[in-house]
Design brief:
The protein is an alpha+beta fold. It is about 35% helix and about 20% strand. Strands 15-16-18-17-19-22 form a six-stranded antiparallel sheet, with helices on both faces. A five-stranded antiparallel sheet has the order 5-6-7-8-9, with helices on one face. Strands 1-2-3-4 form a four-stranded antiparallel sheet. A hairpin with a 6-residue loop joins strand 5 and strand 6.
Length: about 600
């Protein structure tokens, strides 16, 4: 479900109970389009998240910690100047649109009380956070929208704030039979449910579908073909929804089907009647759960976009290079034949006359003693023809040796780059990204900063930590640096090492504590190795495992590369049901010793 006007209204109801009248004591900006206000209300501290994230714009109370940049961005500094220590007077939703106004009373530089309004516009990729003063002048905004980006509406400091362009929708909370009839008449060519969400503010397609369902009218039926009776039923069903909104009759819940999240809704919907529901105390807790993973994936994709492009370009270079090398190898496949021709000419040198262009010679080196037709250069003597064949053979032999070395180096680089790309997929925070950047910089894929010493990457991020069903600690490296440290420095000789067979992936270590590791733990560790690899979505993934004492790193090898012996192999499928049980036991705060 979209974060529509109804969901916003339920959040505002929650905020009116919890933070209106409270004071803003902290302002943070963890992302360019995201603000967190630390609020002290009735002696209780809480955090309000406002995000203009293009994929998941919303507001909610949050308990999740977020990493802040070393230096606060400009928008954050402006907010601290104008609203920090300010009192929240009211939170409103104009015309039931996807807009939230937070009115704040704060002291200015002169010590006078002024009113500022922090506006969150929830409009997909056009979402924005805007601070305006009592004269409706924009003080600052998260996204500057100049004339070259929009000729309709500019959002810039110093300009007057105007609402986003109207879509000629009717305010849902003013629903009556007259405006309902007008909306249907204006959208006759649309399907019934589309006429509803296109004609009224704050209504998502899911809610429009629910209205048609409750009215026992096919949502796909064209609005222009609805009978008067059907229109009346839709109006009554719509009125029931509006009454729920006005009475704050909210019951936030996650809709689940076969352990998969289907949607989130502000109250019971009959279209999801047969599916499982997970009820929440507040809409904030619901949205926190729903968006947690989605936000992380979006942010990580956004922050690693340049890394992915760099690594992919180098992978493509290696693949192209491999193709050229294979073509060259095919061109010298006949090298032994060249040698044979030279030797046959030498053996029959007195039977060959200068000027001949071909000659059939018996192959004394073959059991069949067959005749071989040998091409000759008529301008050369037989000895010179033999030398020509030997020179071509020796050149092909040198080419083969060079190609074997180059191919091995290229294949090693390709395998390394694929492990780095897999590491990028495992990133969970800014520190993980910094460590990969440093690794690529050390390997020469990213230029170093003009001879200056590389900036410190900060505190090392810890590998992932899980506890098996048998109580054994399992650690998973998130990048090559962690893989090396985990395998070569952390793990003891009797611990068990896992890695997908010939597939880029993470190193996984089971801390054995000198005991025999049960089969269930071995399977769970192998499943984690498969999940945190390139074969994450495959089935029957082969995973090698062996005691750590059998794993070694060759001198000069790239990060993450090891050789191992005496391995056994498990075939596992990282299916969701089994993974959820294992992943639920993650303990990211535990360090391995």
């Amino acid at each position: 479900m979209a974060f529509d006007g109804i969901m916003i209204r339920s959040i505002i109801d929650e905020l009116n109970d919890k933070i209106v009248g409270g004071r803003i004591d902290k302002v943070y900006q963890p992302e360019s389009d995201e603000i967190i206000l630390g609020i002290r209300s009735f002696g209780v501290g809480c955090k309000l998240l406002l995000t203009a994230n293009p994929s998941h714009p919303r507001l909610q109370l949050t308990e999740r910690s977020r990493e802040n940049p070393p230096e606060p961005p400009l928008f954050c500094m402006v907010l601290r100047k104008h609203i920090q220590s300010g009192k929240i007077l009211e939170i409103t939703q104009p015309s039931f649109e996807r807009i939230v106004n937070i009115k704040i009373e704060a002291l200015n530089e002169m010590g006078d009380y002024t009113i500022k309004t922090l506006v969150l516009e929830i409009m997909g990729r056009h979402s924005n956070l805007i601070l305006i003063d009592e004269n409706n002048t924009i003080l600052e905004c998260a996204r500057h929208v100049s004339f070259d980006k929009s000729s309709v509406r500019q959002v810039l400091p110093g300009k007057e704030y105007v609402l986003p362009p109207s879509q000629d929708k009717t305010d849902t909370l003013t629903l009556d039979e007259n405006n309902f009839a007008k909306v249907l008449a204006a959208n006759q060519s649309d399907k019934a449910f589309a006429a509803i969400y296109k004609g009224f503010t704050g209504i998502s397609p899911v809610i429009a579908d629910e209205i048609c369902h409750n009215a026992d009218v096919a949502s796909e039926k064209p609005a222009g073909t609805l009978t008067e009776n059907e229109k009346a039923r839709i109006y009554r069903a719509f009125s029931d929804i509006v009454e729920k909104i006005k009475n704050s009759d909210f019951k936030p819940q996650m809709v689940i089907n076969d352990d998969k999240i289907v949607d989130f809704v502000p109250f019971d919907l009959n279209i999801f009647k047969l599916l499982q529901k997970r009820i929440y105390d507040t809409p904030s807790k619901l949205t926190e759960d729903y968006y947690a993973t989605r936000d992380l994936v979006y942010r990580m994709n956004q922050k690693t976009h340049d890394l992915r492009r760099l690594i992919t370009q180098n992978i493509e270079r290696c693949v192209k290079k491999r193709s050229i090398q294979q073509k060259e190898l095919r061109s010298i496949e006949n090298r032994e034949q060249l040698k044979l021709c030279g030797e046959l000419i030498t053996a029959n040198i007195y039977a060959i006359k200068q000027g001949m262009t071909t000659v059939k010679l018996q192959n004394y080196y073959s059991e069949e003693q067959e005749f071989v037709e040998v091409e000759l250069d008529g301008s050369l003597t037989p000895a010179e023809n033999a030398q020509k064949y030997f020179k071509r053979y020796n050149k092909a032999k040198r080419t083969l040796a060079a190609l074997e070395e180059q191919t091995a180096a290229n294949d090693e680089e390709l395998a390394y780059l694929e492990t780095v790309l897999n590491s990028v997929n495992n990133c969970e925070n800014e520190q993980d990204i910094k460590e990969i950047r440093k690794e690529l910089r050390d390997q020469g894929y990213i230029k170093k900063d003009g001879g200056k010493k590389d900036r410190k990457t900060g505190k090392k991020s810890a590998p992932l930590h899980f506890v098996s069903s048998d109580g054994f600690d399992i650690f998973v490296g998130k990048n090559n640096t962690q893989n090396d440290e985990l395998t070569l420095k952390t793990a003891h000789s009797t611990d068990i090492w896992f890695h997908t067979k010939n597939i880029p992936g993470s190193h996984v270590i089971v801390i054995s504590r000198g005991m025999d590791v049960p089969d269930a733990t071995l399977t769970e560790a192998a499943t984690l190795a498969a999940y945190y690899s390139k074969a994450q979505e495959s089935s029957m993934v082969p995973v090698d495992y062996t005691p750590r004492k059998n794993v070694h790193k060759p001198n000069g090898a790239k990060p993450g590369f090891v050789i191992f012996t005496h391995q056994k192999t498990l075939a596992v499928t990282p299916d969701e049901t089994q993974l959820k049980k294992i992943l639920a036991q993650e303990n990211p705060h535990t360090q391995c010793n």
